[in-house]
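[step 3/7] inverse_fold.run input=structure_tokens len=178
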């Protein structure tokens, strides 16, 4: 789930963007060497340290004093601040502001239900590599990237709405039983 749902969200967002008239280009060619070099770099300098600190430590500590949802939203705000340079440099379309906060709730839910940061690292990797580094390059132009980002954000908002409908602010059965 932590790997395949984000991939589905990325592909559906690309498809929906294309249905609105956004130009979709062919994927850039990637060799196995590039893949073997990029995967460890992306894992080691993004998802692994961020999830170990933001969720493995931050989520765990904050939810001792507040609901997991409140902790997730505070961490989402922190993650948003952490990523401000990417927005200021124009490397990430502005609708991803919403996604960063929404995905923080998804991460917290995964953490609550799995009691591990590794599914979060997998989700984060899938979003960074496939959504940011590879598949998203199919979307042509800055305007197309913004439309894609709105669809991407909408899917994460729907995922959060489902989690909240199903589990409430405790975000999972583990939190309710402790």
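[step 3/7] decode complete -> sequence:
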């Amino acid at each position: 789930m932590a790997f395949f749902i984000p991939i589905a969200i990325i592909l559906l967002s690309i498809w929906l963007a294309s249905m609105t008239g956004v130009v979709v280009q062919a994927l850039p060619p990637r060799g196995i060497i590039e893949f073997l070099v990029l995967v460890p770099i992306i894992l080691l300098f993004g998802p692994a340290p961020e999830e170990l600190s933001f969720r493995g430590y931050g989520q765990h500590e904050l939810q001792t004093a507040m609901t997991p949802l409140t902790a997730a939203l505070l961490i989402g705000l922190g993650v948003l601040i952490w990523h401000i340079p990417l927005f200021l440099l124009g490397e990430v379309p502005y609708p991803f502001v919403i996604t960063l906060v929404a995905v923080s709730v998804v991460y917290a839910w995964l953490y609550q239900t799995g009691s591990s940061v590794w599914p979060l690292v997998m989700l984060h990797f899938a979003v960074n590599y496939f959504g940011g580094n590879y598949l998203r390059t199919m979307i042509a132009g800055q305007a197309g990237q913004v439309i894609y980002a709105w669809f991407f954000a909408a899917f994460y908002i729907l995922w959060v709405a489902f989690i909240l409908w199903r589990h409430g602010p405790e975000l999972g059965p583990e939190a309710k039983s402790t």
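[step 4/7] annotate
The chain has a mean pLDDT of 87.
Residues 14 and 148 are 6 Å apart (CA to CA).
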